[in-house]
Amino acid sequence: MDTSNQGRPSAAQASIPEGAADAAKNHGQQPGPQASLETLLAGIAAGSQDDFAAFYALTSRRVYGLARRVLIDAELSEDTTQEVYLQVWTNASRFDPSVGSPMAWLLTLAHRRAVDRVRSEQSSANREARFGAAMQEPDYDNVVDTVTQRLDAEAVVQCLDSLTDTQRESVRLAYYGGLTYREVAQRLSAAVPTIKSRIRDGLIRLKKCLGVNENAGEQL
Questions:
Q1: Are 36 and 55 in contact, with CB atoms under 8 Å apart?
Q2: What is the DSSP letter of 70?
């Protein structure tokens, strides 16, 4: 086992060693079938780039095939495969032979990574769909709503003109100014019962003018 390359990167700087990646892609130097994946993992845990390259060459087709079955997309599958081997390089020491074989451990990593990528892509697509829906402007509905609101406002203005001056002022202060009966009374220097009577009579006139059913809600 070649352990000449012991310069293992820190967790924060972890990446697939450039030399190992190049060697892994050289199919003319793949190790023979007698190579032990468990032994290679031990070498990777010790920082051997050569063992990593050999492990990659022996197993990458299986990993890519699994990723492709889950993700369908070739580019996403390639990216996921590289992420799996980055995980192998940084976590090889966590492999426990008493739990399962090296290939089972590797394919479990690959399957989890592929499923995570599916969820990530779906979440991203959902966010884009929600954003797109929120940004859509229903021009026709907006126009109809605007016109309707404008006509309603104009009708109310016209009907307000049918009230007496005292009724109109009381209704405006209470319903458009947001004042209470007591505040309206103070503003107009009138008794609270008088203000209540003006507002009640004014609302009755407004309802009749606007064609509001007397049995409809009591709020204007």
A1: no
A2: H
